[in-house]
Amino acid sequence: MKLDLFVVAILISIFIAYLYPDLGVNEDPINLTKVSHWGISLIFLFYGLKLSNKDLKTGLQNWRLHILVQTSTFLIFPLIVLALYPLFKDSSYELLWLSFLFLAALPSTVSSAVVMVSLAKGNVSGAIFNASISGIIGIFITPLWLSPFIQESSVEYDFKTVYIQLIFQILLPLILGLFLRKYLGNIAIRYLRQLNLFDKFIILLIVYISFAKSFESNIFSGISYVELIGVGIVVVVLFYLVYGIIGWMSKRLKFNREDKITAQFCGTKKSLVHGTVFSQALLGHTNIIGIVLLPLMIFHAFQILIVSVIATRLGKSNESTPLYKN
After folding, report:
1. What is the pTM of this model?
2. Domain 29-311 class?
């Protein structure tokens, strides 16, 4: 197993935010928040440039797989967390619960999901389609899951303003990218590595700004190491629970091995890109983003680790073996 350098970079960004929170809060000498906002728009502009019509058309044919993946991403995942709401309502842990709902409502991630499915010899075209369309669906669905609970909390929230920001900052650049793909798509593919590095740089910048605001306001002072370990345990349990449900449903739907791999890998992935972007749109004016992103950070690191192990094992096997051990 290779050490994932991006996970290390995230940890370093959080550590720098702890040491120098002022740089992420103050506007001098550079307004990092505005830089991140422009970076987000560029990410989705490039996202539109990189989408392939051929892959999307091929993926459309396997509609049962798409329904399962999107259902698990935007319905099963959030409903599991929502079922626990009565246990945390009006308690000191309600904000942590909200951070898990935020994680559960996020779309799937494109790059790592496709890479892992390819490594495990699953349905790659189905993975590309679902991971791509998931990001577009999430622009509309993710805020719908979160808005009722944010409005009930003490956090200031304007549903209309959030959607206006999502439209101008994400949706319009994405549409522009799709329109320009015919002219600039080849350039985007040629410089794919550089664009991926740009994506990661903007993510690291948002992570730094988010945690700098939280550290500056001492928002983490009420979280103990025991509670942090508890968050990690819940993340692992949530992953395996959804993973197992998708596996059971894939068996009931009589999916072949390739579709089952794609369903479980794409259906359990959560996008760090969309998570950092949506946190800015939904809660950018508050100091709680660090806590809201905390389960997502842990989930991101864990899913890379465990799915890499599973994908490697499946890739070496030519038999229709189960995707996890009981």
Report:
1. 0.73
2. mainly alpha
Tell me the per-residue pLDDT of 113-126, one tens digit each, with 9 for 90 and over: 776 787 788 887 78
| Structure letter (DSSP) for residue 222 | G
CA 231 to chain centroid: 17
- What gap in Å lies between CA 69 and CA 130, rounded to an integer? 7
Three-state DSSP class for residue 63:
helix
Cα separation, 200 vs 272, in Å, equals 10
DSSP 229-273: HHHHHHHHHHHHHHHHHHHHHHHHTT--HHHHHHHHHHHH---HH
SS3 223: coil
Neighbours of 309 (CB within 10 A): 11
Which residue ranges make up each domain of the chain?
A: 29-311
**CA triplet 27, 29, 30: central angle to 5 degrees?**
65
Condensed to tens digits (0 to 9), the pLDDT of residues 35-72 reads 877 887 887 788 778 766 666 666 667 889 999 999 99
Q: Which of 51, 282, 57, 56 is nearest to 175 (CA)?
A: 51
User: What are the tokens at 139?
Assistant: 């622009």
- Please spell the DSSP secondary structure of 79-135, one letter per residue: HHHHTTHHHHTTSTTHHHHHHHHHHHTSPPPSHHHHHHHHHTT--HHHHHHHHHHHH
Among 303, 261, 255, smallest CA distance to 123 is for 261
Q: Which of 54, 56, 44, 60 is nearest to 195 (CA)?
A: 44
How is 5-16 classified by DSSP, letter by letter?
Answer: HHHHHHHHHHHH
User: Rounded CA gap, 133 and 263, in Å?
Assistant: 14
Other residues' Cβ atoms within 10 Å of the Cβ of residue 234: 18
